[in-house]
Amino acid sequence: MARAVRAAFQGGAAAALFTAVTLPLASPLHAQQVANTDSAADAVAPGDVVIVTGSSGTGKRTKTKASYSISTIGEDALRMQAPTSVTEALKSVPGFWVESSGGEASGNIRARGIPVDGFGSVTLLEDGIPVQHDPSLGYLNADQAFRLDETIDRIEVVRGGPSSVFYTNAPAGAINFRSREIGDAPNGLVKFTVGNTGQRRTDFWYATPLADGWGVGVGGFYRIDDGARDPGFRANDGGQIRLKLTKDVDHGRLSFDVKHLDDKVALYLGIPMRTYADGEIRVIPGFDGNHGTIAGPQTEHVQMKMGDGRLYDFDNSEGTHVRRTQFSAGLEKDLWNDWKLTESLRYSKTDTQRNGVFPNQLLSVDAFLKQSQSLLSYVPGATRLSLQYANAPGHAYVDPNALVIVGGLRGVTMPLEEAINDARVARKFSVGTQSHDVTLGYYYARFNQSFSRYSSSALLGAQSQAPLLDLVASNAAGQALGSITDHGIYNYGYEWENASGTSKTNALYLADEWQIDPQWRIDGGVRWEQVNTSGRTERPTFVNLGTFATSKVRTGTGVFDYYDHTFNQTGWTLGANYQLAKNAGAFGRWTRAFRLPNLSSYITSPTATPVIQTMDLGEVGYKYNGGMLELYPTLFYSKYNNVSYTNTIFTLDNMSSTPQTGYASTRTVGLELEGTLRPAPWGDLGFTLTLQKPEYRDLRYTDKVNNLPVPRDYSGNQLVRVPKVSARLAPGVNLMGDKLRLQLSYEYEGARFVDSANSVRLPSYTVLNFSTRYQISPALSVFGYVDNINNSQGLTEGNPRAGELQSADAGANTFLARPVIGRTVRAAIKYDF
Fold first, then answer.
1. In contact, 792 and 88? CB cutoff 8 Å
2. Which of 30, 232, 660, 762 is deepest in the core (most CB within 10 A)?
3. Which residues make beta-bridge pairs with 287?
């Protein structure tokens, strides 16, 4: 046995961990010893939390006995924070840098320094099943298809560890939203929320047991909102409804869940910022940096000309509009000879329309007019150019900052149909006085996705709710002879795509929890996964319809390029936990994870040659849960191999985005600290801290400058948008016999960089939030929230359209960037029954 332990730790082969299960089963003489070992190992310390994410088998696992890093966010914590998005809900998770400045959907997560946008390194689960098999499909991130409401009871977040074995596309972690259980007695709630952004929201939940072991629950929300960054029209509008059924069966339980989402939310993008004489970065004069957005009434609805003569109906009031129907079914059942079966099925159909006004370039008016001199040839007799308001011909554009934005009116349509199935069998075996809790699983996923995109560039004033501008040509006497642009449109069709594809995934995984004695446990697992991606992409061409605005309209040719590729990879994890006491333990783990190419790798680039991305992840941690103090420090190491970087630079001369793709590796070492201090019954302090050194390794490529090759080497530079220091403090007090709670949160993000060259720096910033709860009666509670009390304009990202390898904004005094959302105020009343 000792040799097996050493073999497992020395990593000769992942199979060494499982050799013990082939030994003869223990005799009845050892049964009591095994029972004592299992009983001690499964004991739950007071105040500890039973978790279900990141583990399997027949036993139960608690937070302080897990051999991996996991954060739990309970119902009370969620209500005190009242997060407006998935990413907002994860601000208290150490090791995660989250960006929620884009609105209620379209967030970004960087986990443990892994430099992948969106949800490319973590998976989003609902009741243990992926919300979306691949959570990062280009313009279709999993958080767009999921909304938080009162049907969710708690969140469990696994950082690294076994997430890559039990779940697909989860090398850096898994975020599991657990829905409410139905319970043994009727119960329900209704909650009304109002806000200073015009928000009106209703959440509800009702559940009751029925006859013959059945139970039913129904809940959801509906919300309208003008938006934290007001575009001049309703930004957020919609909701969802869920029906949940459960049935107790012989030695098991069935569950059925149907949910329909129909919701549209605004997409907030960059605004003009400036570095001032005092060194501080703030919004340009006249622009509302806390609540302003360049999207406005003039860009709300635009009929854009297409190359085939049709009109594209760009409706920015749609924002990110998701219509999704999701059906889930589950079975947990004890089988013969102590086997346990867990079966999870999810089918979903999602239709997404994603519209946005993207700020591609910020230029001075003089620079723009100078670059545009060659366009005078489009208007005979013209000798000078000027900018005028598109909706007020003859009125010159007047801007105190003398700036103009070249924006993109981008519309993307993405229907997705998906089926996911995850089946597991588990059994606990005894070997002498020890036990093995073994899980064997099979995962299958298939989805069909279509993708179409059409974009036109527009001239916009550098103002909140930006006006459309026309480039007007005049003669020497100043008489306007004609407009080069078309009602503010500079160039129709600078983007056009038409593609579709199918992805099929098969995976097998095996895991074992080896309880050596009441203190020592070793667990590990291995996952083999294969993905096949196939589809077609229509070849584009350019047509000239006779005017400058229609001189380079990108459109389809009717000729398709086809692709059909298969990839497979094996990953594994091995960890150990030593339980010092019921409420204290230490753990260590090493994981070899991977991420296979997905449809996004091909859907607009059928000739692309993506590579399998692999990661080496290590962690060592301590866990303590006492009455006065909870403390979870973890040292971690992340090495990301073969990560691809696409540098997309928007250029005015041809109105296109020119991609540059490179591959590199990254390395991050760091410390995560999570905990709660309760020095008195009336007060507590929650805290998280992340200290890390995130850097590129082997990031080298050859650039072209004046048609000459220039080598670039960014090895050792800090990762894009990943801070070295992140911290959150959440002090709270309970007064009036715990009827009143007051809570403040202090959030700090260290300095970051826009690009791999580290040429554009995003300074550190702090955000203060306040929340309160007063319990009027056992059934009635009121809540108050003030987010971003200090009206911080902390920058979460620069302008990715200026390039993320080397930003074109380097050295610029005025540039585009996206700050956190300004101060908002909300109040809610909740009634439980």
1. no
2. 762
3. none
CB burial class (10 A; 0-12, 13-18, 19+) of residue 448? Answer: middle
Per the domain annotation, does 487 fall within a domain?
A: yes
Token pair recorded at residue 756: 């791999």
pLDDT digits (tens, 9 = 90+) for 227-254: 999 999 999 999 999 999 999 999 999 9
Eight-state DSSP code of residue 718: B
Relative to beta strand 173-179, strand 122-126 is parallel
pLDDT digits (tens, 9 = 90+) for 710-755: 788 889 999 988 999 999 999 999 999 999 999 999 999 999 998 8
Whether residue 178 lies inside any domain: the answer is no
pTM of the full structure: 0.90
Domain region containing 269 = 43-172+183-417+439-832
Q: What is the pLDDT of residues 538-556, one digit of tens each?
A: 999 999 999 999 999 999 9
Cα dihedral sign for 133, 135, 138, 140?
positive
In degrees rounded to 5, what are phi and psi of residue 252?
180, -170
316-326 per-residue burial string, b: 16 or more CB within 10 A, e: under 16: bbbbbbbbbeb
Q: Is the pLDDT of residue 9 over 50?
A: no
**511 Cβ partners below 8 Å, 6+ apart?**
56, 57, 162, 165, 166, 438, 439, 441, 523, 524, 525, 526
Q: Rounded to an integer, what distance in angstroms lies between the CA atom of residue 631 and that of residue 64? A: 10
Per-residue pLDDT of 609-621, as tens digits, reads: 778 889 999 999 9
Structural domain total, the chain: 1
What token pair was written down for 102? 């884009």
Cβ neighbours, 10 Å, residue 221: 22
Torsional class of 11: left (φ above 0), alpha (ψ -120 to 50), beta (otherwise): left
Q: How confident is the model at residue 336 (pLDDT cuts 50, 70, 90)?
A: confident
C-alpha distances out from residue 544 to 107, 306, 312, 376, 554, Å = 38, 11, 17, 18, 9
CATH number at residue 255: 2.40.170.20
User: Parallel, antiparallel, or unpaired for β 200-209 and 187-195?
Assistant: antiparallel
| CA 653 vs CA 241, 406, 552, 812: distances in Å | 48, 12, 11, 20
| b/e sequence 619-658, b meaning 16+ C-beta within 10 Å | bebebbbeeeebbbbbebbbbbbbbebebbbbebeebbbe
Q: From 587, 457, 776, select the one nearest 66 (Cα to Cα).
A: 587
Angstrom distance (rounded) from CA 352 to CA 318: 10
Tell me if 790 sits within 8 A of 244, measured CB to CB: no
Within 13 A of 424's CA, how many CA atoms are on the CB side?
24
pLDDT at 31: 40
Strands 725-735 and 765-777: unpaired
- Number of Cα atoms under 13 Å in the Cβ half of residue 71: 26
| Other CB atoms within 10 A of residue 211 CB | 5
User: How confident is the model at residue 29, as a pLDDT?
Assistant: 38
SS (H, E, C) 150-219: CCEEEEEEEECCCHHHHCCCCCCEEEEEEECCCCCCCEEEEEEEEECCCCEEEEEEEEEECHHHEEEEEE
Dihedral of the CA atoms 79, 354, 122, 670 (nearest 10)?
A: -80
Query: Torsions phi, psi of 774, nearest 5?
Result: -125, 125
559, exposed or middle or buried, with CB in 10 Å at 0-12, 13-18, 19+? exposed
**CA–CA distance, 622 with 757 (Å, rounded to integer):** 36
Strands (DSSP E) found in 681-764? 683-697, 700-705, 708-713, 725-735, 740-749, 752-753, 761-762
- Per-residue exposure over 727-757, b if at least 16 CB sit within 10 Å of its own CB, e if not: bbebebebeeeeeebbbbbebbbbebbbbbb
- Asked whether residue 36 is assigned to any structural domain, the reply reads no
CA atoms within 13 A on the CB side of 153: 8
Q: Within 13 Å and on the Cβ side, how many CA atoms surround 235?
A: 25
- Select from 299, 282, 414, 431 the least CA-distant residue to 354: 414
Token pair, residue 53, equals 């994410």
Q: Is residue 131 part of a domain?
A: yes
